[in-house]
Amino acid sequence: MRRPTVLIFDVNETLSDMSPLAQRFEDVGAPGHLAALWFAGLLRDGFALTVAGVGRPFADIGAEVLRAALHDERLTSSLDAAVEHIMSGFSQLDVHADVPEGIRALRRVGLRLVTLSNGSSAVAEGLLQRAGLQDHVERFLSVDAAGIWKPAPGSYAYALRECRVTPVDAMLVAVHPWDTDGAARAGLRSAWVNRGGADYPGYFRSPDLKVASLVDLAERLA
Amino acid sequence: MRRPTVLIFDVNETLSDMSPLAQRFEDVGAPGHLAALWFAGLLRDGFALTVAGVGRPFADIGAEVLRAALHDERLTSSLDAAVEHIMSGFSQLDVHADVPEGIRALRRVGLRLVTLSNGSSAVAEGLLQRAGLQDHVERFLSVDAAGIWKPAPGSYAYALRECRVTPVDAMLVAVHPWDTDGAARAGLRSAWVNRGGADYPGYFRSPDLKVASLVDLAERLA
User: Fold this and answer.
1) What pairs with residue A172 in β-bridges?
2) Whether residue B137 sits in one domain with residue B38
3) CA-CA 20 to 30 A from B151: which of A98, A146, B175, B186?
4) Chain A interface, best mutation among B42, B203, B204, by max A CB count within 10 A
5) What is the average per-residue pLDDT within B66-94?
6) Total domain count, chain A
7) CATH code for the domain of B147
């Protein structure tokens, strides 16, 4: 494999540690384990629209799926306030522990770094700013500008155009197998970040690299 | 709205009560709330493949998502045995309480009834057999024969061809808004079964009917 020139990072869960969102559910009287169910439901519904070729803002889908997820809970606040409290948590997440060292190491290797999120550019930029890493990232791209979510081919094609690179010169980096699969189908290289040690699903296209962290990724690409 | 001639029923959760699957998770030492997360993740990954135009067997996706969902749990059996125990629960589910009376009432109205599942035909047929309702259902269709999952247009088109009806003469009946949305985009009528009282998401196309049960649906179509 030829070394890519641009790394395209997924943002939610790949760079951000989403575990504090569970506490936000508990803050409003709901069980913390609903956070994972909510995020899976958000992607499920977003992907259903992607099948139809429709792209809607991540935060809009997130808020409505959240309302449904909280519907049967005995909340300690109004439903509107609970949704607002949890959704605002997205803007206050921090990066995973391996991200600062990993990002700096990848820059030292000479790679260009961009993000491509199904969420907003502002959330991604804020995340990297809080970690003091924003200067290492060339662009904060969102599928909002592509009109279609990942894993549709058009979302990756948008990022390639913005970065002015061919697919084989770009590598998508994500913790989500559906994202590495979509990137592979669009002709990009892909790296799966597997912090938890789970197996990669056999029904998705295998990533070019499987790494345990961004530090590991930098070592593999050095 | 002209009355449809054929009702096309979704199966999982629409006809079947999936709540006993939570007990199956507890049987193997995992929390019961993982059942909902697992099912949402199954659909998330299945829809990601649907975006790519790929249809894989529901049980294959289900088993692999289940392995990932159980990865961090302290199981009381081997992972293989736990996956087998939970997956086999699909074949032993029963219909929701409103289904027998609703199905019989819909037949009395003179409607043709078929099922269309992202899962297998055998699971759907077994479910209706256990309820003594199989003779009221003309066909047990699966997207396996269409090569693509709902909510892709091709899945609904397959059912229309098999039933020899035009889209406006068919109504998709489901508890899942992503399914009624997909059917509406494919030109079918749609009915959303809302047993829990949640709101219908604003980002999906509105169903032609919102009903509280299949009995309610029969009354609305009488």
Assistant:
1) A8, A190
2) no
3) A146
4) B203
5) 96
6) 2
7) 3.40.50.1000
Q: Which of A172, A193, A167 is nearest to A113 (CA)?
A: A172
Q: Check A51 against B202: CB less than 8 A apart.
A: no
Note down the domain range covering B173: 6-17+94-221
Angle of helix B153-163 versus helix B177-185 axis, rounded to 10: 70
Q: Which of residues 103-162 of B touch A (CB under 8 A)?
A: 151-152
Q: Average pLDDT, stretch B140-145?
A: 98
Q: Among partner residues A33, A178, A196, which is closest to B45 by beta-carbon distance? A: A178
Asked if A80 is an interface residue toward chain B (Cβ–Cβ < 8 A), one would say no
How far off is chain B from A187, nearest CA to CA, in Å?
13
The DSSP output letter for B28 is T
Return the pLDDT at B44: 98
In this complex, the residue of A40, A71, A198 whose CB is nearest that of residue B71 is: A198
Residues B110 and B195 in one domain: yes
- Segment B92-106 shows an average pLDDT of 98
Could you please report the per-residue DSSP string of B143-206? GGGTTS-TTSHHHHHHHHHHHT--GGGEEEEES-HHHHHHHHHTT-EEEEE-SS-PPPPTTSPP
A165 inside domain: yes
* Contact map slice: B 9-68 vs A, CB within 8 A: 31, 33, 36-37, 40-41, 43-45, 47-52, 56, 60-61, 64-65, 67-68
Question: Would you place residue A1 in the very low, low, confident or very high pLDDT band (cuts 50, 70, 90)?
Answer: confident
Q: What whole-number distance in Å separates Cα of residue B143 and Cα of residue B157?
A: 10
Contact: A40, B41; criterion CB under 8 Å: yes
User: For residue A207, what are the β-bridge partners?
Assistant: none
pTM exceeds cut of 0.95: yes
Same domain flag for A160 and A207: yes
Domain of A86: which CATH number? 1.10.150.240
